[in-house]
C-alpha cells in the first residue's frame, strides 16, 4: 500500500513534522506517516467550514475510521491508517480521544479551566506522540515519559499558534498575562525534563523527533512571554536545523 499520498499531505500541511519525519530512520517512516496524516486531517477539520455541524461530521467520520474493526475505507489516509492500527495493535481509544479533543477547536468557548487545557494537550499532542511510539513497538513502561515529552512539545506548538487562534476569534489562554504565560512555559519545561529523567528507549526516539523545537520555544516563552502574543515565538533557521540534526544523529532529546 503506497504511502505517497500521506507523505504529500504532511509535506504540504505540516512542514515541521515532515522535516522530523525525514530525519527519522527509513524503517520508521512508514509507521509514522499514517498517524501524522491523521493528525493533520483532524487538526484542520474544525477550520475547513464555518458550519460547526460540518466540522462535527468530519471529526465523527475519522472517529468511525479509527473504530472500524475489519474493512478499511477507500481513502488515501484511512486505508494505510487502518492497516497500521491492525498491524501495530494501536490503542484505538487513544486515537479516538485525539480526534474528539479537536471539537474544542470548532467553537469559540474558552477552556473551562486549566485542567481542561491540560487535558486538551494530553489528548492531542501527547496522545499522538504515544501512538507514534506504540507504532514503533513501545511497551507500557515508556508511556509516562513519551506523554510528558509530547505534552511539552504540544504546548510549545500551541503557544506559537496563539496569534492565529486569537485572529480566528478563539480565546486560547485562560490567563494571557505575561507572568501567566511564563509560568505555563515553565510547566512545559518541567515535563520535558521529567521525560528526559525517565528516559525513552532509543528505538522509540524517532517518535519524539517532532518535538525538536520544544525546549527552545518554551525557554523563549518563559524568558520573553510577550513574544507569544506578538507572534515572535520562533527559532532561527540555524537553531531549528541544528537542533533537529543533533537530535536525529545523537538520539538524545
How would you summarize this macromolecular structure in one to three sentences?
This protein has 253 residues and is mostly helical.
**Mean residue pLDDT:** 96
Annotated CATH architecture: Orthogonal Bundle
Order of helices and strands: HHHHHHHHHHHHHH
Percent strand: under 5%
Helix amount, in percent? Answer: 55-70%
Q: Measured on Cα atoms, how large is the radius of gyration?
A: 17 Å
Could you explain how this protein is built, in words?
The protein is mainly α and 253 residues long. It has a single domain (4-250), classed as Orthogonal Bundle (Farnesyl Diphosphate Synthase). 68% of the residues lie in helices and 0% in strands. The protein has 14 helices and no strands. The protein has helices spanning 4-13, 15-23, 26-44, 52-67, 78-88, 92-100, 103-106, 114-135, 143-160, 162-167, 178-198, 214-223, 226-229, 237-250. The longest helix has 22 residues, at 114-135. It is globular.
Helix-strand blueprint:
Elements: H1 4-13, H2 15-23, H3 26-44, H4 52-67, H5 78-88, H6 92-100, H7 103-106, H8 114-135, H9 143-160, H10 162-167, H11 178-198, H12 214-223, H13 226-229, H14 237-250
Helix pairs in contact: 1-2, 1-3, 3-5, 3-8, 4-6, 6-8, 8-9, 9-11, 9-12, 11-12
Amino acid at each position: 500500500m503506497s504511502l505517497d499520498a500521506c507523505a504529500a499531505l504532511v509535506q504540504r500541511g505540516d512542514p515541521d513534522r515532515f522535516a522530523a519525519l525525514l530525519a527519522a530512520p527509513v524503517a520508521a517512516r512508514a509507521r509514522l506517516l499514517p498517524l501524522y496524516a491523521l493528525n493533520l486531517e483532524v487538526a484542520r477539520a474544525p477550520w475547513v467550514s464555518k458550519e460547526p455541524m460540518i466540522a462535527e461530521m468530519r471529526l465523527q467520520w475519522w472517529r468511525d475510521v479509527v473504530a472500524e474493526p475489519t474493512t478499511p475505507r477507500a481513502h488515501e489516509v484511512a486505508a494505510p491508517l487502518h492497516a497500521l492500527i491492525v498491524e501495530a495493535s494501536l490503542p484505538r481509544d487513544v486515537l479516538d480521544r485525539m480526534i474528539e479533543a479537536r471539537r474544542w477547536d470548532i467553537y469559540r468557548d474558552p477552556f473551562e479551566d486549566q485542567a481542561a487545557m491540560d487535558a486538551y494537550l494530553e489528548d492531542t499532542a501527547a496522545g499522538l506522540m504515544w501512538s507514534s511510539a506504540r507504532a514503533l513497538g513501545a511497551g507500557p513502561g515508556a508511556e509516562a515519559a513519551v506523554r510528558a515529552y509530547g505534552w511539552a512539545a504540544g504546548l510549545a506548538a500551541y503557544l506559537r499558534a496563539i496569534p492565529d487562534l486569537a485572529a480566528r476569534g478563539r480565546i486560547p489562554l485562560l490567563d494571557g498575562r505575561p507572568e501567566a504565560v511564563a509560568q505555563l512555559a515553565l510547566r512545559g519545561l518541567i515535563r520535558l525534563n521529567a521525560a528526559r529523567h525517565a528516559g525513552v528507549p532509543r528505538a522509540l526516539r524517532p517518535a519524539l523527533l517532532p518535538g525538536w523545537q520544544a525546549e527552545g520555544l518554551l525557554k523563549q516563552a518563559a524568558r520573553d512571554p510577550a513574544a507569544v502574543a506578538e507572534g515572535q515565538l520562533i527559532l532561527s533557521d540555524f537553531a531549528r536545523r541544528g537542533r533537529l540534526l543533533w537530535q536525529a544523529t545523537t538520539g538524545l532529546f
